[in-house]
Amino acid sequence: MAFCLRQFLTPQVWKQARRGLKRPRKDARWDFHHLILVALAMTWSLGDSTPEKFEMARGIVAICRPKRRRAGQTAQGFQKALCRLPMRPLVALAGALRGRLASLLGDDLFHGGFIPLGCDGSRLECCRNDELLARMGKAGKADCSPSLWITAVVHLSTGVPWSWWVGRGNASERDHLRRLLPSLPKRALIVADAGFDGYDLAVSILKSGASFLIRMSSKSHLFVNQPTDRDQFRQGRVSYWPGRAQQAGWPPLRLRLICVRGRRRGKEPKRGADVWLLTDVAAEGMTIAQAASFYRLRWENEGLFRSYKRTLSKVHLVGRTVRAVHREAYGSLLACQLLLAQGAWALRGARDRASAVMPCSPRQVILAVRKELNAARKADRRESYRDRLARCQRERRQRTSPKQKRVWPQRTPHKPPKPPHLLTMNERQKTLLSRLNAIA
Q1: What does the domain layout of the chain look like in residue ranges?
Q2: Sheet of strand 147-155: strand arrangement
């Protein structure tokens, strides 16, 4: 396991992360290496409480670094040292890990000529105390618990998280995505649902050099050259020009609208809902079938939060201060990224080059990690850690039953978005457009 981690946590990665640190005290028990490694091992370890996970993580770090100075002895000391750690080295460490992901995964990042990246957000519950209630914001009902909002960008063909942003429970995921745009690689294609529509966000994505494929809903109004029947529409050029952009004097965005017709589900006579996708990629660079496959891959983003919350048991954060909550969430997301990156790297080395990219199973990977942790404590080396990871492929079986087994009483049934409105410009809008074209 130490060999696999060194493929990602190289000396150059540690060096880049340490640039954001202040000069540490000579007598400090906790250094940066100890804090990060113990935080990672605690996320992967089993235990009913934080002290139990800390004891196991501390022992694992001592085994992996036998010639180094031992870490602290108490979970309280670890929490205090983690709260004193600035966020800048954690952000620098995540940036350096993205560079290692690009070099280790290589061509596996590309799918259909793009690097498909999905974006979505989710909330994590926090402890109910005065500080968190006052500073984390209210999201939902009046008496709900304080929460932390996480917006994550996920590589869709491998399922590995690429970057993320944390904020208050009532934060805007569109604003989070705008902040994450500098972290995206070249040839990035952002695939998102209808919650990420908007003129400002589309302009920001285009200015960053990335492309997008975003689902449209009935809230969006798109302009076409001539009246169009939505039942017969498949793809075409449209102008995205909302009223606020017209009032501000901003030009319309000439984009491409794609309609992916719903398929029949099993033996049911009714078709699924149609998916309306807006993109800046021309028809020569992306066909309708490719657009449908890209949006179908967006489910990997939902799978990440399922793995993070359920497989790694991060539904509820245990930190009792704002600093503790942010560092706990960031450290656990780093652990989730390293966990899935190890699985993707091992499968890349085991599979045939001609075969397609197969995402790893997060549950199988965490089981392999915990088995390796127990083997390290018991000195059992019957099978290498990388061989275990190479077998952690996701199950690909033909599903004959629905994924939902029962109807949850407190969950609202999902309703697919309705199609956008296809309009034609009136005389005032045509005059304004002519004036803008003359100025340009």
Answers
A1: 2-20+86-351+360-378
A2: 161-168, 147-155, 115-125, 188-192, 211-215, 275-279, 253-260, 235-240, 221-223, 421-423
Lowest mean pLDDT among 99-103, 289-293, 387-391: 387-391
Look at strands 221-223 and 235-240 and give their pairing: antiparallel
User: Cβ–Cβ contacts within 10 Å for residue 412, how many?
Assistant: 6
The CB-side HSE value for 161 (13 A sphere, CA atoms) comes to 28
Q: How many secondary structure helices (H) and strands (E) does the chain include?
A: 16, 10
- The single residue listed with the structure tokens 């990629």 is 281
Do 293 and 213 touch, CB atoms closer than 8 A?
Answer: no
Run of H or E including 119: strand 115-125
pLDDT digits (tens, 9 = 90+) for 208-241: 999 999 999 999 999 999 888 888 899 999 999 9
The token duo for 336 is 């989730």
Q: CA 295 to CA 150: how far, in whole Å?
A: 21
CATH number of 2-20+86-351+360-378, picked from 3.40.50, 3.30.160, 3.30.70, 3.90.350: 3.90.350
CB 64 within 8 A of CB 41: no
